[in-house]
Design goal:
Helices cover 46% and strands 22% of the residues. It is built from eleven helices and eleven strands.
């Protein structure tokens, strides 16, 4: 696939690629990453810049003791390598994993640095995206330190419900949080032992049910959780 073909398939890409210099465009390559694959690893030397046309990805921080903390999930249009390049650092600071099948347009780091230094359009778009991610991270930073695990899990449940139709005129009868305990640990920043204990307690209190180990909840439980979270925020 060529960049032109990718632009035709995903027109939202055009504001980002329309000012790409012709010689850089000629060297651009299109790569696909299947769901579950690692796009780049923390501390990897970065030699490319990529514009993500389609696919959801998660950004995680891996520590030497084996623990993983999920920083954020990102959807297109997005970038790979932009923070490292703008910071002028040689190696990546995070690991990026494809949550869904991902397609991105790749250029070399050398080409990217030249393009960013000469073109205010792409520099502005990349800078806005980096600033948005920083804003989003800063806004919620500290949540895991100052709120108990029950709040973190119920807040997660409420956001999951809102994103999956619980506020619609005809909400679903039941929703399933299709996450493993390991994945929830990474997303919430709660260790598995504490997470399992919290799930059991919230189940006993009627906020959720379990089906084959997965958290499930209906509209009544969603409303109950939403009310509890709002009250907890005011305390």
């Amino acid at each position: 696939m060529t960049l032109r073909e990718l632009e035709a398939q995903f027109p939202d890409l055009l504001p980002y690629t329309k000012t790409m210099p012709a010689d850089i465009r000629s060297r651009c390559t299109i790569r696909s990453h299947p769901a579950g694959s690692i796009i780049h690893q923390k501390n990897m030397e970065l030699d490319y810049f990529a514009i993500v046309a389609t696919g959801e990805n998660r950004v995680i921080n891996e520590f030497e003791n084996g623990n993983i903390y999920m920083i954020e999930t990102n959807k297109p249009i997005d970038f790979f390598g932009e923070v490292t390049i703008l910071a002028g650092m040689p190696c990546t600071s995070v690991t990026i994993e494809a949550v869904t099948d991902t397609i991105a347009a790749y250029i070399s780091r050398k080409d990217a640095e030249r393009w960013l230094s000469q073109d205010i359009n792409i520099l502005t778009l990349v800078s806005k995206q980096v600033a948005y991610k920083l804003y989003r991270s800063s806004y919620r930073n500290g949540t895991t330190l100052f709120y108990p695990p029950s709040f973190l899990l119920l807040d997660y449940l409420v956001k999951h419900g809102a994103a999956n139709g619980m506020e619609d005129p005809l909400p679903p009868k039941l929703l399933v949080i299709d996450r493993t305990r390991q994945r929830l640990q990474e997303e919430l920043g709660i260790n598995v032992k504490t997470l399992n204990r919290t799930i059991r307690n919230l189940k006993d209190e009627g906020f959720l049910t379990l089906s084959r180990g997965k958290i499930t909840y209906d509209e009544e439980q969603y409303r109950k959780a939403a009310e509890w979270v709002e009250l907890a925020k005011d305390k």
